[in-house]
Automatic annotation (TrEMBL):
UniProt remark on cofactor binding: Binds 2 magnesium ions per subunit.
GO CC field: cytosol
Assembly and interaction partners: Monomer.
UniProt keyword annotations, A-Z: Cytoplasm, DNA damage, DNA repair, DNA replication, DNA-binding, DNA-directed DNA polymerase, Magnesium, Metal-binding, Mutator protein, Nucleotidyltransferase, Transferase
Residues with site note (Substrate discrimination): 32
Binding-site positions, Mg(2+): 27, 121
Compartments (UniProt record): Cytoplasm
Residue positions of the active site: 122
Function of the molecule: Poorly processive, error-prone DNA polymerase involved in untargeted mutagenesis. Copies undamaged DNA at stalled replication forks, which arise in vivo from mismatched or misaligned primer ends. These misaligned primers can be extended by PolIV. Exhibits no 3'-5' exonuclease (proofreading) activity. May be involved in translesional synthesis, in conjunction with the beta clamp from PolIII.
Protein name (database record): DNA polymerase IV
PANTHER family membership: DNA POLYMERASE KAPPA, DNA REPAIR POLYMERASE UMUC / TRANSFERASE FAMILY MEMBER
Domain annotation UmuC: ranges: 23-203
Gene giving rise to this polypeptide: dinB
Length: 395
């Protein structure tokens, strides 16, 4: 097992400073692929890709053995096979991954109620005031990694620091199966030499814009003033300005609401005809609505994603006055968005449907009843002889 690495002074020093938070970022190593290797001993030590071994398939996850050949998630299966001829493809088992994830989150909850899941395989923990006395955040991280391994047979990497940004950087720093600590006095220095591509929240397009401005490292970013960054990057400039100095005030949000629910599908062959596209869109709407019913939520914004065979992608969306109430209604709106993209400019490789602006279904029903009562109330609206609606005076 990889030992604990510490940038600068011991992390226990942070625990002695009352105003310093103690944040852990836990990230399961090659989660989907590791579950498959755990459950099938014949896959252990071999390059494994979770996904479809098809002409139009995509890699959902890759084991570390596969990553050594350059295989990455979201890579077309044909490209992955070309990079690693010995690659073993395994179909995904999302029900299993969700069950294992739930087990891991049960373990994390033994240490703190302040847990913010980011996905099935990673989460932030605020252990400033832990449930179990373990002395330091580093000791908690070390223990929970050992418990995860003992109870699930899987490896987790962990990063410990005084904010979320640095904790996530730390968990990446010694992967796989590593533990790394960035204490308060070393935060700004750790960021200084880091390429901006390594900053969470800076994607390839933003990194290219920064390079064009001569910003290549955290030190370069720190040299720019907030007004200058705002001119180029808008509201997100404040975040860049802060993290370049090792500053991130975002709290761990255990009750952070889900922002969207969606699904997408890549096709074996390009689609050109309306019936061929409508059938998978109908299926995806049913799946999305099933997920909404399980969570007892609904939403007002319907989004359709279309990816063409040249990998160009467009997104169309509509926000409704009232939340969606059924799979059929979701399909009506998705179908309307699809019709606006028809006939397709090129063959369609992928379609996706997402529902967002989410709210509890009980709240949606209350809103709908309130609107219905307002419309039906004889005291709220009267119709004059000229057919013009007018609000009645209070009596």
């Amino acid at each position: 097992m990889t030992g604990t690495a510490v940038a600068g002074h011991p992390a226990a020093q942070a625990a002695q400073e009352p105003d310093v938070r103690r944040i852990i970022h836990v990230d399961m190593d090659a989660f989907y692929a590791s579950v498959e290797q755990r459950d099938n001993p014949a896959l252990r030590g071999r390059p494994v890709a979770v996904g479809g071994d098809r002409q139009r398939g995509v890699v959902a996850a890759a084991s570390y053995e596969a990553r050594r050949f350059g295989v990455r998630s979201a890579m077309p299966s044909v490209t992955a096979r070309r990079k690693c001829p010995e690659l073993v493809f395994v179909p995904p088992r999302f029900d299993v991954y969700r069950a294992v994830s739930a087990r891991i989150h049960e373990i994390l909850a033994r240490y703190t109620p302040l847990i913010q899941p980011l996905s099935l395989d990673e989460a932030y923990l605020d252990v400033t005031r832990p449930l179990l006395p373990r002395g330091s955040a580093t000791e908690i991280a070390r223990e929970l990694r050992a418990v995860i391994r003992a109870e699930t047979g899987l490896c987790a990497s962990a990063g410990v620091s005084y904010n979320k940004f640095l904790a996530k950087l730390a968990s990446d720093h010694r992967k796989p199966d590593g533990l790394f600590v960035i204490p308060p006095r070393q935060g700004a220095a750790f960021v200084a030499d880091l390429p901006v591509e390594r900053f969470h929240g800076i994607g390839p397009a933003t990194a290219a814009r920064m390079h064009a401005l001569g910003i290549h490292t955290g030190r370069d970013l720190r040299a720019r003033t907030l007004p200058e960054l705002t001119r180029h990057f808008g509201k997100v400039a404040a975040f860049y300005h802060g993290v370049a100095r090792g500053v991130d005030h975002r709290p761990v949000e255990p009750d952070r609401p889900r922002k969207s629910l969606g699904t997408e599908r890549t096709f074996e062959r390009d689609l050109y005809e309306w019936p061929d596209m409508l059938a998978p869109v109908s299926d995806m709407c049913a799946r999305v609505w099933h997920g909404c019913e399980r969570r007892d939520i609904t939403g007002r914004t319907v989004t359709l994603k279309v990816k063409y065979n040249d990998f160009r992608q467009i997104v169309r969306a509509c926000t409704l006055m009232q939340p969606v109430s059924s799979a059929g209604e979701l399909l009506v709106h998705a179908q309307g968005l699809l019709r606006g993209c028809f006939p397709p400019e090129r063959g369609v490789r992928l379609l996706g449907v997402t529902l967002s602006t989410l709210l509890p279904r009980a709240q949606a029903l209350t809103r709908q009843l309130a609107l219905a009562l307002e419309v039906q109330s004889p005291d709220s609206v009267s119709i004059g002889g000229n057919g013009v609606g007018r609000r009645s005076a209070g009596r």
